[in-house]
Write a structure and sequence with these properties.
Shape: elongated
Number of domains: 2
Radius of gyration: 18 Å
CATH class of the largest domain: Mainly Alpha
CATH topology of the largest domain: Tetracycline Repressor, domain 2
Order of helices and strands: HHHHHHHHHH
Number of strands: 0
CATH architecture of the largest domain: Orthogonal Bundle
Structural class: mainly alpha
Strand content: under 5%
Distance between the termini: 49 Å
Number of helices: 10
Amino acid sequence: MTKKDSIIQAALKLLTSNGIHATPMSAIAKEAGTGMGTIYNYFPNKEILINHIYQFIKLQEQEIFEPFQPDKEIKTQFFNYYSLAVNFFIENIQFFQFMEQLQASPIITEESRKLGEKATVEVLNLVKTGKEKNVIKPIETQELLQFIGGSLLSTIRWNTQNTSKTYISNQIKLVWDAIKV
């Protein structure tokens, strides 16, 4: 692992356990086993470090989703998307904790947000096409995405404390039943 990777891992660990304001750069440097000069070489301030982690997570998230395929069944692709998203964040729980804490934070730059939006392009295309094909309810796309996103957050949160084998599949079915025509 490179020094930069050590810094990122240490920051992710401390920011998710202690919070943004209770995690000074000096604590991150200590956890990473590096000096303050080294940390500031890579990240001139905490906001840049936080945005770097945000972008890193969003790029990882983007890689798990298959491109939307208009010829495939909308329902099948939705189930796949939802399942991949839940499992990605369950397997990377610190990513989830970090994103949950910072999603609406003013620390996240416009550049980072725009990069983050690319992670949702495939589900956006899925919802729009589903609406056009009269498979998904004719509700504003952003409202549907907010509903789906809220369900994802709740599902991941609940699953961190309860590991029912049927919970995730039941949640996918419930969300699908709520948005389908």
